[in-house]
Amino acid sequence: MAEPFSVRVTVRGYETDVQGHLNQAVYLNYAEHARWSLLQAAGVSQARLRARGVGPVALETTIRFRRELLAGDEADVSCEFEWGGGKTFRIRQEIRKLDGTLAAEVTAVGGMLDLEKRKLLADPRDVFGELATDLGLFGL
After folding, report:
1. Tally of structural domains, the chain
2. pTM for this one?
């Protein structure tokens, strides 16, 4: 199996809290950055999604904090899609320091929203199949 898609981030000082740790909300930003980077790498831009009249939506997100990240730390944020049947998919992400230390695990449940009807599509894989130039990044 191929390595999951990942992007590297550097913790900036203004992203930390009074203890010097990466602020908990910023972990979500890093996870979202990795997800959109994967979409872009697969050929699925925001413009193409809007033109198709759809958009990905987050339905649930869970973060498990494992080790602290501090200003100046670099970390790799992975992104793997998991598919079941139906309207939703799961995204598993890890935020790891460069030495391999697991800093956080992010699990999200998402779907693909029809922007006109404001309803989830029956099978989001159909849209990725239409728009993506690299379905392998989605595990398809």
Report:
1. 1
2. 0.94
